[in-house]
Amino acid sequence: xxxxxxxxxxxxxxxxxxxxxxxxxxxxxxxxxxxxxxxxxxxxxxxxxxxxxxxxxxxxxxxxxxxxxxxxxxxxxxxxxxxxxxxxxxxxxxxxxxxxxxxxxxxxxxxxxxxxxxxxxx
Length: 122
Fold this sequence. Notes:
Blueprint: H1 6-13, E1 16-21, E2 25-30, E3 38-41, H2 44-56, H3 61-75, E4 82-86, E5 89-93, E6 100-102, E7 113-115
Parallel strand pairs: 3-4
Antiparallel strand pairs: 1-2, 2-3, 4-5, 6-7
């Protein structure tokens, strides 16, 4: 797992208490609400996404990050504590790696879960 960029941590700290979770990413606890904790999975894709946001508009990067996290918080179920980068936004998950994939629609509009079954290595 790569180290979280300092600018990313600083942007998150405005709205969250942030703590490192070894080997996974960053624990986020909202400052303004009693909302639950979430773990932002920090991987190469997230670092590249953040760098692209900052490169495109450094002043707007923190707001775009906050909007993306707020959107996934609304969609997440209580047991889905992990936030994984998925395209230009985040997907909620029960693990640091996606154990299941959603279809194209969010659960609030009738989306369903499609179970992920690992291939047999044998």
